[in-house]
Design goal:
The protein is mainly alpha-helical. The protein is built from three helices and two strands, in the order H-H-E-H-E.
């Protein structure tokens, strides 16, 4: 049995008629696939915080194949420092509004401008800059 196609074309002369808008919404909500998609796409929002390793000046291309304990501990400390620094920004804990949906943050991108960085602590420094 062929399905009825519901086509929604904006008509600005009728766009203020609440009855017509409600009729379109009801027709769309009657389609089972729309109900399924609506359940999956409910009001989920999220923030994404990028933690991207940026090589130190002395590493060169060795960062792609040098996996000694010392190197890996440096990389892990860099990741920890970036995580602590990123978590110090309150805006990552504020969910975006429904229309925005997803926000992406990369606070380590400001590494070339140290004035924008949040210090980790007095005794811990990041020498990658």
């Amino acid at each position: 049995m062929p399905r009825q196609l519901v086509e929604c074309v904006p008509n600005f002369s009728e766009g203020r008629d609440a009855g017509k808008i409600d009729a379109i919404v009801q027709a769309i909500l009657a389609v089972p696939e729309v109900v399924l998609l609506a359940a999956e796409a409910n009001k989920k929002v999220c923030n994404v915080v990028h933690l991207i390793y940026r090589a130190k000046k002395y590493e060169g291309c060795a960062k792609d194949y040098e996996f000694s304990r010392r190197t890996m501990e440096e990389h892990w400390l860099a990741g920890y420092s970036d995580a602590v620094q990123s978590l110090s920004h309150r805006e990552i804990f504020e969910p975006p509004d429904r229309l925005e949906g997803v926000r992406t943050f990369d606070f380590t991108a400001t590494r070339n401008n140290p004035d924008q960085l949040v210090p980790i602590s007095e005794d811990q420094t990041d020498e990658r800059a």
